[in-house]
Amino acid sequence: xxxxxxxxxxxxxxxxxxxxxxxxxxxxxxxxxxxxxxxxxxxxxxxxxxxxxxxxxxxxxxxxxxxxxxxxxxxxxxxxxxxxxxxxxxxxxxxxxxxxxxxxxxxxxxxxxxxxxxxxxxxxxxxxxxxxxxxxxxxxxxxxxxxxxxxxxxxxxxxxxxxxxxxxxxxxxxxxxxxxxxxxxxxxxxxxxxxxxxx
Length: 199
Hints:
Elements: H1 3-25, H2 32-39, H3 45-49, H4 53-69, H5 83-99, H6 103-116, H7 120-143, H8 149-168, H9 179-191
Helix pairs in contact: 1-2, 1-4, 1-6, 4-6, 4-7, 5-9, 6-7, 7-8
């Protein structure tokens, strides 16, 4: 491997390890030394990549956004031409994966979101990465005929975030809904946003 490739691979390893530590130990358990130990790297490796805690958190946020963006393959992404059925199928699949195989990543995201409320510099960085998803969703609902895309996207994000928090870290953590149940809930929500002509 080239030096550049090795550096990129190590950065991914450090970021992935940081996300795993956030999910397992919370924000207090995330230190440069802990990342080195958990990743099996020589002491000081994480500090060489991210000298400050802010830099380490930004590295984790960037990796989080990259991994969440790959939850759905291109073939699984909602197609506006498929109407509500396509949007429901795509969003339900992404949400269910966040509750199951991506549970660790979802926990890490909540840790970072809470930390961002106390760190203005992280808040700006965290929000900027999240804006890309909201922009994509806004484009989707607009193409499907939404009369108020901004409000509809807020409702969709709030519904999905509420479900994920409840089932990953809240009072429903022992009752993860099935894909069919997530799909049914999304369908009910979206049916209230679009009239039959938009389907």
